[in-house]
């Protein structure tokens, strides 16, 4: 008599191996995307700011960017580091 759960077990094993493959792909692509270079759309995506606000920050040189001619470029890793610099210290509130 064969095990009635064998097909289910085979499918679960297959799902597990596919999941591990996807995780490996995500991890390998994650390191490449950290150094992604793009234009204003990348800056908007990373910072969640409007294009007008980003242009204002660029004109005041408050946001990391590169400019070659009239083309603005941003590096994802620099924008993420810039966002991290803005972290405020947390205060511990005492509730009495």
What does this entry look like structurally?
This protein is mainly α. The chain has a domain at 35-85. Helices cover 57% and strands 10% of the residues. It has a 3-stranded antiparallel sheet with strand order 1-3-2. β2 (66-68) and β3 (71-75) form a beta hairpin. The model has no long low-confidence stretch (mean pLDDT 87). This is Helix-turn-helix domain-containing protein. InterPro entries: HTH_17. Residues 45-85 form the Helix-turn-helix domain.
Keywords:
3-stranded antiparallel beta sheet, HTH_17, 96 residues, Helix-turn-helix domain-containing protein, mainly alpha
Briefly say what this structure is.
By secondary structure, the chain is mostly helical.
Layout of helices and strands:
Layout: H1 6-33, E1 37-38, H2 40-47, H3 51-59, E2 66-68, E3 71-75, H4 76-85
Antiparallel strand pairs: 1-3, 2-3
- Ends apart, CA distance between termini: 68 Å
Write down the overall mean pLDDT.
Answer: 87
Major beta sheet summary: 3 strands, antiparallel
Strand order of the largest sheet: 1-3-2
Radius of gyration: 23 Å
